Predict the structure.
Amino acid sequence: MVKKVQKAGNTAKSSAAAFNSPLSGAIKDSAQQIWLAGLGAFAKAQEEGSKAFDSLVKDGLSIQRKTQAVAEERISEATNRVSSMATDISSKAAGQWDKLENIFEERVAKALNKLGVPSARDVQALIERIDALNRQVQGLSGGKAAKAPATKTAARKTAARKAAPAKKAAPAKKAAPAKKAVRRSKAA
């Protein structure tokens, strides 16, 4: 054990001697140069740092503009696709509503037909037929036939008006003879 301690002591003396040698001076000089190079780089970075920062800001701004333009283009493409899809869907839905409306109208028309209610076409056909018959009657009678029904209905209205006050003034038992009188006047 004593031998190991002596050897360790000898190595410490030899390393101290080696530190004072020319090699140690070269290491010191090299470390000094590295330190100075680092300080020089730091000073240069401080000088050119603002220029580099401005340059990086400009580059970042141009990249941001490019990405915004691309994003807006993508958004407009997506908007166009969605709007065209919405248009297609709305036109299909409108077509379906039209079909549903037609089915509903057909079923209502069938139900009304079963009940004996004339359709708008039937009524229009009857009106046209009546107009045609009126023209024929006027052609045959010289226009007198149309005036005769109007005078008959006017006479009926005036007779009904005359009979109405008699009904109000007369008691309930005497109303029957008054009606007979109206009937007699109509017969005459």
In short: Helices lie at 2-19, 22-115, 120-141, 144-169, 175-187. Confidence is low (pLDDT under 50) at residues 162-188. The first helix runs from residue 2 to 19.
